[in-house]
Amino acid sequence: MKYLGIQTQIRRNNQRSALLLILFPVLLVALSWLFFFLLELLVASNSERPDQGVNIDGVNYLFLNALPFVVLACGLWFVIAYFSHTSMINKATSAHSLSRKENMRVYNLVENLCMSQGMTMPKINVIEDDSLNAFASGINEKTYTVTLSRGIINKLNDEELEGVIAHELTHIRNRDVRLLIVSIIFVGIFAFLTEMAMRSVRYGALSGGGNNRNKNNNNIIIILLILVLAAIGYLISMVMRFAISRNREYMADAGAVEMTKRPEALASALRKISGDPRIEAVTREDVAQLFIENALDKKPSFFGKLFATHPPIEERIRVLEAF
User: Fold this and answer.
1) Please, which residues have CB within 8 angstroms of residue 29's CB and are 6 or more apart in sequence?
2) Is there a single domain that holds both residue 14 and residue 157?
3) How high is the pLDDT of residue 2?
4) In angstroms, what is the C-alpha Rg of the chain?
5) N- to C-terminal Cα distance for the chain?
6) Rounded to the nearest 10 degrees, what angle do helices 263-275 and 313-321 cross at?
7) Which residues are known catalytic residues?
């Protein structure tokens, strides 16, 4: 696969980040309005004159009054998550700092690669797991971090480990990590809002009085609300996955080869990683997509493969061996 070049990749990732930042408030507003529309539909079904339909003016009134609070709450969440993402990811992966005294070998490999590229050296973390995996994270030079599992440090030789580190440094250089962090935060916000909306409507509807017909209507509206919100949540997840192209892994592989001049070493490393990539502490798919191999991506179905966050590792190895 032809390497597009660092500036092209950075520009594309910056554009995608901007798109997500624009798309987020649009989807947030649409989801909020839809919630109040369905809520008003529920009220109309319980009224004495259900044939009058939904009061759109009432929907707009509730929507406009609630919107500032929704935007404020989500804005605060985004700011907090954006600036505390490092601790959140470390907690989700059980990662901790790897000291220079503890492993000079890793520090030497990272420093040499960074000096060859004129990059500021990132922080280095380790996950105490014998499986083989690694990821990069951060939004700026102060937070950029390369995290390695204990297994990948111990089971790869110097050339293979250098290839993996170069792959992660390319993600940092190409701004892939910032795009991933933004998408993780957005998906988390929408997942929380969807769950809260479903719980509040379900509780309000099922706790109310009324005859059996009203109860049946309530149940229909609740099911409709759940289905619509679930569909929107699924659509949002797909949009995020499409925005974060699987080509980023091919580009990071190509960037690693550009740094190390040893495609066979990275191919060998990926082959070893494919045998045992599962980090036990990682259970969230949004976090798993950060890794060089997403162990939670292994779904045999057609749609599972179509919407996978990573290309098949066998294909990546084949491309590397063709260099």
Assistant:
1) 67
2) no
3) 47
4) 24
5) 9
6) 160
7) 168
One domain, residues 11 and 83? yes
Chain centroid offset of residue 109 CA: 28
The whole-number mean pLDDT for each consecutive block of 10 residues of the chain, a chain of 323 residues, reads 56 70 76 78 64 76 86 80 83 94 95 95 97 94 95 97 97 85 74 66 53 58 65 65 70 92 96 95 86 78 62 91 86
Q: Does the model's pTM come out above 0.90?
A: no
**Residue pointed to by tokens 């190895």:** 317
pLDDT for residue 108:
96
Is there a contact between 309 and 287 (Cβ–Cβ < 8 Å)? no
The phi-psi region of residue 230 (left if phi > 0; otherwise alpha if psi is between -120 and 50; otherwise beta) is: alpha
Give CB contacts under 8 A, 24+ apart, made by 83-89.
85/137, 85/139, 85/143, 85/181, 85/184, 85/185, 86/137, 86/138, 86/143, 86/145, 89/137, 89/287, 89/290
CB of 323 closer than 8 Å to CB of 2:
no
- Please report the pLDDT score of residue 220 as a whole number: 65
pLDDT computed for residue 84 by the predictor: 81
| pLDDT score of 3 | 47
Q: Which two tokens stand for residue 58?
A: 């009432």
In a domain, 157, yes or no: yes
Could you say which of 216, 243, 270 is where a domain stops? 243
Give the domain range for residue 54: 6-88+178-243
What local confidence, expressed as pLDDT, does residue 48 receive? 57
> For position 7, what pLDDT does the model report?
66
Q: How do the residues of the chain divide into helix, strand and coil, expressed in percent and rounded to 5?
A: 70, 5, 25
φ, ψ of residue 322 to 5 degrees: the values are: -90, -5
Q: 167: part of which helix (H) or strand (E)?
A: helix 158-173
Instruction: Measure the CA–CA gap between 121 and 125, rounded to whole angstroms.
Output: 13
Q: What is the pLDDT of residue 129?
A: 97
233, 163: one domain? no
For 191, counting Cβ atoms within 10 Å of its Cβ (0-12 exposed, 13-18 middle, 19+ buried), the class is: middle
Residue 296 per-residue DSSP state: G
